[in-house]
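Sample 1 of the test manifest.
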Amino acid sequence: MSPPLVRPEVSKGPHHLSENVMHFARVLRAAGMPVGTDRIQLALQALSIAGLESRADFRATLATCFIARAEQRTLFDQAFELFWRDPDLAGRMMAMLLPKVQAQQGLMTPSSQQENRRLAQALFPESRNKQGDSEPDKVDIDATLTFSEREILRGTDFETMSADEWIEAKRALRELRLAFEPLPTRRTQRAAHPGRADWRATLGVMARHGGELWDMRWRRPRERTAPLVVLADISGSMSRYSRMLLHFAHTLARADTRVESFVFGTRLTRTTRLLRQRDPDVAVAQVVREVKDWSGGTRITACLHEFNRHWARRVLSGRATVLLITDGLEHGDTHALAFEMERLHKSCRRLLWLNPLLRYSAFEPKAAGIRTMLPHVDQFLPAHNLESLEQLAHVLAHAADAPPRLH
Amino acid sequence: MTPLPTSIDDTAAQLLAHDYVAERSLATSVYLALKLQRPLFLEGEPGTGKTEIAKTLAAMLKRPLIRLQCHEGLDLAGAAYEWNYARQMLEIRLAEREGVSRGELGEELFSGKFLIKRALLQAIDPGQPVPPVLLIDELDRADEPFEAFLLEVLSDFQITIPELGTIQALQPPIVVLTSNRTREIHDAVKRRCLYHWVAFPDAQREYQILMKRVPGAPQKLAEQIVAFVQKLRALELYKLPGIAETIEWTRALMELDAIVLDPDTVGHTLGVLLKYQDDIAKLQGAEAQRILDEVKAAMA
């Protein structure tokens, strides 16, 4: 049997218990878990039935009520350990949660150093470092370029752009009209023209007219846009393009389809949530700050392997379009690279490779990595200036040559 | 219908009596779901006994099991109800001959008589003697719009049919939802449920499960199998073997009259345990031998 609960207040009565559970829920909420009031009530209801016999039961009861996603388990476990084990720490925390009591700096014990940083910030809100919240530089520029200036800008390579041009390019990107290729689904919607019979509606009409009028109603397959997955290389050789392509990904994320984005250098990072921030500059800055390997080396094979293993089955679903943004300069085992590329290609509907190296008109795929990857992509496109990104938007909006299939 | 268990221990004991070896935390979630009349949302790797828990609950509480297998494009007509159009049309023809008035026909045509009840509606049908166990299996396979259909069922145990009105369960059914997590289920669904992550069992529990499920298995073989599979789960494989695979493998090995694991038999039967060619290729030969040696060394 596990040891009994350490928190002495719990046994005293329901009043303290509910207070503590509520505080615990608030800590979880501050650490980023969406724990609503209804969940707290549910937990209290649950605790009145079970969960007070042992620490393990107590934990299981709170877990089943508060957790909603698999990835929240780690956070919950750490928070539970911190909140319900160390009576001293919890006591100090209670003091902190009371209004008007200022927390002291340096309360963190060395043992808790390796705990989740988000959790630490939730438990000790005073020690939060403020540098991350600084206002983004606001750049206001009169954006009335003439036509010819726009034309020049469209053709300018991202790498050679001046600061002003860069800002202007970002603005142009935001104005990009995005449409996505519609795919038929297995669901239907009402239609005006003959197709599939809508018996329910037809009989409804007939019933209203006493069974006399044969007025057929129809349905047709409903269409949905293809989801998009962006895999962007952020290694040193790619960093400037990647920055612009992150802006592009941010624009995509506002479009009317599901967009998942990942960046990779020496390791793979999922950036979907970071790019949800509305302001593109803040969003991209967030990615750069969070990603540890920005402008570092690149390990394409290893990162593709990680993607295939952990994410492909969750985000690809067989109908997604994948945008792979990399220069493909991978050294080492081309065999493994070919294997991972093939797997990636087979688990999505369309694989588009954007390679800024295509800016050189005389580009030939000579590097071993590029030659290995090429057979496994559907389209190989440049991505070094605004014009090429506009082309890309066009490619995304139109069906591939492959025959249509139901999804 | 047997009464609900009275405590967590009771829940665990009753599940065990029906050959389901539940972790304490799972028993807690099940007990709370039964007591609070909340749906139970189970997520976890394939083959860890998520579907099995619903079946066991049905057997344990002596209630009928209604299963809704989710798939892409599943809609109301497939999950909840559908009108019997053929019968409705016949009814219209008959009505024409007998000269039934319009108003009467309109009412008659969309009455319960012409309703085909699918899984969700069956589960909350007030007319049934015993509230059933409703298993909504592999919800991640259905598309997102389908989840919205579930919200009304999960929170109020009712379904609204525009032509007929709202149908509500007299006694709420026991609802179990499972997901293999090939995509994230919307929070609105999860909010209405109790959540439990079904993890791979540890060696001791896996052995217990194996002995429950394959009663005739030789003890030594079972111990080796469990140790081998536990080691496999630590490897970098595309698809880790679940409990279901362990059980299947044990049955396969018993069919082959194996008493202990040897490299040849392991090599020939890997297809029962692993379902990706790359995983199998990785384990053929030297790697399997190495793990087997480790297992034997640990057990000696």
